[in-house]
Amino acid sequence: MSAGTATSSRPLALMRGAAAAFLLGTLAQAALAGLFVTGDVELLAWHDANAQVLAALALVLVLAAVLIRWRVQGPRWPIAATG
What we know:
Elements: H1 3-37, H2 43-72, H3 77-82
């Protein structure tokens, strides 16, 4: 693998990892909300913390989409899909 190929694949790997983490966080958010509704009030803090993590991951996804477009001349639709 050449140096150019390794550099160009990093934004894509970042986006894939962030998307997978965002998916897991979203599933956890639903589970935490369900457990909170059943009466476990202490999970509200976990639900809030997970929301903060999801917001940060959303920002990482947008930045990765911009990097893909800018550095690799990738398609524009990931920016619109993540923004």
